[in-house]
UniProtKB/TrEMBL annotation:
GO molecular function: electron transfer activity; heme binding; metal ion binding
Short name of any one Pfam family annotated for the protein: Cytochrom_C
Coiled-coil zones: none
Record has Iron as a keyword: yes
Alphabetical keyword list: Electron transport, Heme, Iron, Metal-binding, Transport
Entry-linked InterPro entries: Cyt_c-like_dom, Cyt_c-like_dom_sf, Cyt_c_1A/1B
Protein name: Cytochrome C
Domain (Cytochrome c) ranges: 71-170
Length: 171
């Protein structure tokens, strides 16, 4: 039958197995990741896929002079859905971010009533299509210290379409 000694052995076996499993998981994570705090780990072994080279070629192919004419503003409206949580398209209607009415060609940091972090004025003077393109790709990389928390738009086509859409809201 099942006495206390047998029951203790069964529970001890399960606890030992759990301990071995957790130690194995910890060891595997330690071997695979190097680095500090949560979210900042770096993979020890990175597989090169060639995406960095493709991204450099893609950026070089952008013609900023004709970008607004050739981009699709209707697709840019869909991309603007990612911006809608923090930005409005009505003049003077600031939200968590400044209003984007007439942003293409507007001076950087010139939205009335919005308190900017100051990092943008150090990088550019005017929101040209080229400046918007690089800012939308990686806001914190292009303007270190900016308070914009958005990670950026990875696809070049999305950035071009969004800039074309924003250009339709100008005076």
């Amino acid at each position: 039958m099942l006495d206390t000694m047998t029951f203790t052995k069964i529970v001890g076996s399960f606890c030992g197995a759990l301990l071995i499993f957790l130690l194995g998981k910890w060891a595997a994570e330690t071997l695979y990741h190097v680095g500090g705090a949560h979210g900042e780990e770096v993979a020890v072994y990175v597989i090169e896929t060639g995406e960095a080279e493709a991204a450099e070629e893609e950026v070089a192919a952008v013609n900023f002079d004709t970008m607004i004419e050739t981009a699709d503003a209707a697709k840019g409206e869909k991309v603007f859905g990612k911006c809608r949580a923090c930005h409005k398209l009505e003049a003077g209607a600031n939200a968590a971010g400044p209003y984007l009415y007439n942003v293409v060609g507007r001076d950087v940091g010139a939205a009335d009533g919005f308190n900017y972090s100051g990092a943008l004025n150090e990088v550019a003077d005017v929101w040209t299509p080229e400046n918007l393109y690089y800012f939308l790709e990686n806001p914190r990389g292009w303007a270190p210290g900016t308070s914009m928390g958005f990670a950026g738009l990875g696809k070049s086509e999305d950035r071009q379409n969004l800039i074309a859409y924003l250009a339709t809201f100008s005076e």
